[in-house]
Amino acid sequence: MGEHARAGGASFATRPAPFGAGPGSFSPADVEKQRGVRRMKTTATGLLLLVAVIYVLAKWGQNSGAGAWAGYVAAAAEAGMVGALADWFAVTALFRRPLGLPIPHTAIIPTKKDQLGVSLGEFVGENFLSSDVVRQRLRAVGIGGRLGTWLAEPEHADRVTAELATALRGALTVLRDSDVQAVVGEAITRRADAQEVAPGIGKLLEKVVADGGHKRAVDLICARAHDWLVRHGDSVMDAVQGGAPGWTPRFVDRKIGDRVYKELLRFVTEMRDMPGHPARGALDRFLGDFASDLQSDTDTRARVERLKSEIIARPEVQDLIASTWSAVRAMIVAAAEDERSELRLRVRASLLSLGRRMATDRRLQDKVDGWVEGAATYVVTTYRKEITSLITDTVAGWDAEHTSKKIEAHIGRDLQFIRINGTVVGSLAGLAIYAVSRALGA
User: Fold this and answer.
1) Are 147 and 358 in contact (CB under 8 A)?
2) Cβ–Cβ under 8 Å, residues 111 and 95
3) Of the candidates 313, 332, 352, which is a domain's last residue?
């Protein structure tokens, strides 16, 4: 039996495993483990032969009148043989049929491989993927505190920042600009169409007028209007003269044009220099009324919405919205690549600050632990069947013979110790039983 097993193991180790055999082909470490199994098989088999020889000699001595001791030795050797043979049968039955005989409940691993995979999957699901077990294990680890302590180290914060920058660059590189631009454009347009802007503009204008914020704009407009009139006085007078009737004399047209220009210049100058000018007051009242209409007048709000839709629908505006993504993308990529960019410096500082808080703030640690526990529990409870099916499906796809030989290479050496222990324990048990029997019989 030992020689047969050694020959079979050696021939299997020298040929490659079939494609898709399951737990992988035999590695050099596996081959070395197989050699150890063969050595232990030889030792266990040699011990069986030794007690068999001792039994034969002891029985011969007992029949030859060697004395009472021969009976004790024969009983111990006999029980040792029984124990060795029983354990050999049990160990062999795990991987193959003993002596090739079709004995029921033998070759357990090759024939029950799929059931073992299902049982293993159920065992993992019930004992490792239950919500209570996951929560207890994660709570014992204290992820929040450990993560905070790790993240508070500057070199670790630098590493996380660099990894985040790499991931961000990779994500932006994978995304197609045209797709993102279309999504951004559609989102902005849909959001603008759904949101009425008139009331918001009215409230803002009302606030600006109440605070006098519009007065600087009026000051700027009046100043620019005055400067323009000073530089383009001839153009104003020509425009007035050009609109006069053809039957009026030329000098009258010039007189009227000069008069209109001077009055217009005086009006603008007074508005510029007089904060309390009546026209400014009229403008304040107009803006206040317009702000109120934007919030409450139905017709005004409808006109503003139509104007908004017309502006958004213009190709120039859509192109501007679409091009915004390109500018933002280029800015983010440049900031992510530059180690001294404000973006990366701020991210690093934020990570260090977060790490220090997580390392010392118990409430934050509990909050992070709760998030992690919740996420892990959701995953294991939602996808437990998929996770365990990975085990069962993988085991089901393994080649039965290859799997059996692979497992035997890993645990066979320890199993051979069972044969050795069975021989020794059987001998001691047989000796004790024989001794008790003789003592009682005496």
Assistant:
1) yes
2) no
3) 313
CA dist., res. 120 & res. 407, Å (int): 15
CA angle 52, 4, 27 (to 5 degrees): 125
Stated pTM of the model: 0.48
Q: Is residue 11 part of a domain?
A: yes
Those residues with Cβ within 8 angstroms of residue 304's Cβ, 6 or more apart along the chain or in another chain: 197, 198, 201, 294
Counting the structural domains of the chain, the total is 2
H-helix or E-strand spanning residue 69: helix 69-95
Separation between Cα atoms, residue 387 and residue 397, nearest integer Å: 16
Got the DSSP string for 143-177?
HHHHHHHHHTSHHHHHHHHHHHHHHHHHHHHHS-H
Whole-angstrom distance, CA of residue 55 vs CA of residue 34: 32
- 288-300, pLDDT tens digit by residue? 898 898 888 889 8
Q: Which domain holds residue 77?
A: 2-111+399-441
Residue 431 to residue 420: CA distance in whole angstroms: 17
Give the integer Cα–Cα distance in Å for 435 and 71: 9
Both 188 and 303 in one domain: the answer is yes
pLDDT reported for residue 56? 93
pLDDT per residue as tens digits for the range 165-181: 989 888 887 777 677 77
Q: Is 338 within the bounds of a domain?
A: no
Within this chain, do residues 182 and 307 fall inside the same structural domain, yes or no? yes
Q: Which of 313, 342, 372 is the last residue of a domain?
A: 313
Same domain as 309, residue 181: yes
